[in-house]
């Protein structure tokens, strides 16, 4: 399987240890305010990504799409200077990030835009996206515009095979997300449901895993909703129940305060701090490497 990165396609075996849900260049000021909500210093990003490489990491999936401040050329420079493969994203986040054209274009035309970024290039460059991400819902209900964005993502998946990574808020609306995507014919094996493991509802996690999708345990290091010790126990239980091959681990770094430069955990935290917790729970290094 070939994977599209910001420096061109590579073989899947070249990915190595991969963070599947991170932000390197991102602007979250549509939903958050202040200095912390934007990552746009390329030199700092190079230093931060380099720490991940030094810890043994080799690839990062950067899930910031266009309306979230994506900068494909900056990502290519970061990749070239650090030696870390970076996969760029296309898609539409939650409705508060939607540009006006999302409301004006048909669902099929929105899908065309995503396919173009996956196959021809992003923002007038020859840098192609390699994933549809992160497409999101907020809370309580999926808005009509968000449903159209999900259907556009699904149709782009059907035309290109690109995987889809979703954003959930405190694990809400997962069945609704899956219903839309599978109604459009998306193979569950090409879906990653994001931001899981923050709630102590193992029955919900089990039901999501049983649907055959990937589980994004992707808030490692962020302890507002869950401790990493509890996350490690959750992962160990999922592995014991046979879901090892469906688990993906990441940090979802998206704020300055999460970077080493600002006293945070950095992109290497999973490898240097969380993996030991998994080993303490009885997982083997081989099992950890699978995730």
Question: What is the topology?
Answer:
Elements (H helix, E strand, L loop, with lengths): L1 E4 L2 E4 L6 E5 L3 E2 L10 E2 L2 H13 L4 E4 L9 H11 L2 E3 L1 E2 L10 H4 L2 H13 L11 E6 L7 H17 L3 E4 L6 H10 L7 E3 L8 H9 L3 E4 L10 H13 L6 E3 L19 H12 L4 H6 L1
Parallel strand pairs: 3-6, 6-7, 8-9, 9-10, 10-11, 11-12, 12-13
Antiparallel strand pairs: 1-2, 4-5
Reading the helices and strands in chain order gives EEEEEHEHEEHHEHEHEHEHEHH
CATH architecture: Alpha-Beta Barrel
CATH level 4 superfamily? Metal-dependent hydrolases
Query: Are there runs of 5+ residues with pLDDT below 50, and where?
Result: none
* Major beta sheet, strand line-up: 8-9-10-11-12-13
CATH topology-level fold name: TIM Barrel
Instruction: Kindly state the number of beta strands.
Output: 13
Rg over CA atoms, rounded to whole Å, is 18 Å
Query: Into how many domains do the coordinates divide?
Result: 1
Number of helical elements: 10
Seen as an oligomer or otherwise, the chain set is single chain
Mean pLDDT, rounded to whole units? Answer: 96
Which CATH first-tier class would you pick? Answer: Alpha Beta
User: Strand fraction band?
Assistant: 15-25%
What about the largest sheet? 6 strands, parallel
Q: Roughly how many Å apart are the termini? A: 18 Å
**How helix-rich are the residues, as a percent range?**
25-40%
Q: Note the overall shape.
A: globular
């Amino acid at each position: 399987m070939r994977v599209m990165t910001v420096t061109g396609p590579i073989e899947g075996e070249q990915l190595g240890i991969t963070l599947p849900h991170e932000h390197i260049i991102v602007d979250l000021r549509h939903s958050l305010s202040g200095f912390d909500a934007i990552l746009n210093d390329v030199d700092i990003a190079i230093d931060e990504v380099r720490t991940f490489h030094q810890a043994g990491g080799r690839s990062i999936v950067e899930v910031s799409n266009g309306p979230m401040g994506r900068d494909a050329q900056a990502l290519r420079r970061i990749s070239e200077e650090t030696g870390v493969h970076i996969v760029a994203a296309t898609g539409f986040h939650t409705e508060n990030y939607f540009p006006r054209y999302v409301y004006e274009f048909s669902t099929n035309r929105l899908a065309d835009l995503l396919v173009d970024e996956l196959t021809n290039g992003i923002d007038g460059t020859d840098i192609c996206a390699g994933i549809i991400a992160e497409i999101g819902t907020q809370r309580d209900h999926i808005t009509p515009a968000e449903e159209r964005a999900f259907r556009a993502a699904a149709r782009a998946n059907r035309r290109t095979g690109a995987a889809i990574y979703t954003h959930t808020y405190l694990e809400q609306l997962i069945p609704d997300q899956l219903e839309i995507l599978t109604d459009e014919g998306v193979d569950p094996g090409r879906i990653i449901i994001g931001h899981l493991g923050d709630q102590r509802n193992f029955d919900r996690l089990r039901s999501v895993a049983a649907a055959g999708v990937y589980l994004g345990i992707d808030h490692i290091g962020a302890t507002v909703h869950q401790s990493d010790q509890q996350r490690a126990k959750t992962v160990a239980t999922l592995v014991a129940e046979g879901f090892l091959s469906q688990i993906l681990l990441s940090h979802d770094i998206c704020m300055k305060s999460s970077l080493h430069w600002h006293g945070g955990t950095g992109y290497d935290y999973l490898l240097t701090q969380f993996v030991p917790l998994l080993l303490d729970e009885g997982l083997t290094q081989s099992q950890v490497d699978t995730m």
